[in-house]
Description:
This protein is mostly helical. It has helices spanning 2-27, 31-56, 60-85.
Amino acid sequence: xxxxxxxxxxxxxxxxxxxxxxxxxxxxxxxxxxxxxxxxxxxxxxxxxxxxxxxxxxxxxxxxxxxxxxxxxxxxxxxxxxxxxxxxxx
Length: 90
């Protein structure tokens, strides 16, 4: 019963974090603000998928969270390289 309440609260908090990051992604005055918002959205998405895996009791969500985390890391590195250098491939 308490775990169910905690999962509901955690999903609500992470969902609110995703909404606020999306707002910063759209309204960010600089490219670095947008890059940080996108990186934070990946982290929040991983947290949300893990919470869904805990709620449903299956390991498939944890594997999906791992894939999202890896793709998020690669995307963040590529975006940072593009912001700094102006190109991705040397």
